[in-house]
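WARN no homologs supplied; continuing
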Amino acid sequence: MSDETSVRIVRGRTPESAAMVAATRRAIAITARLNRLTFDDADNVRALFSELIGQPVDDRFLLIPPFYTTGGQEIRVGRNVFINQNCTFYDLGGLDIADDVMIGPNVSIITSGHPLDPAQRRAVTIGKPISIERNVWIAAGATIIGGVTIGENSVVAAGSVVTKDVPPNVLVGGNPARVIRAIGNG
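OK structure emitted
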């Protein structure tokens, strides 16, 4: 599942933090253009999203603007992915979205955070990877926190907060999200 050795730590006032700020500026410029588009501009949305993440998406990729991110270049997207409107992806820690994933409206996928220690909170940003495996559905308003894997075919119920790995073929819900029941994989 998630790999704690791939945690990324960015300290303030370093070349790496300056690069993080530059990536955020770049992402905001691209998403500002993307967010002026409509549902009928699917080809242009795909082109701008491909520019944002630095790799082409397939012709079945569908994103309904608006969309927000702090970087974009650490997002990897499989085939036939659907992202509904008003989603926010913070991708500093790396975000892998496999084939056939559906992401509902108002979903937040947040790979980054800060230390609990107040003395370090503004000085350090911590990125932990998120992996969303094949055929996952993340329902409206869910929040996924860094350092987790959502297993194949699983469903994250609306409004849930996922703080731990989700096994394959289950429905999870709540805050924090817990397994509610197994689901079929067909």
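The chain has two helices and 19 strands.
OK
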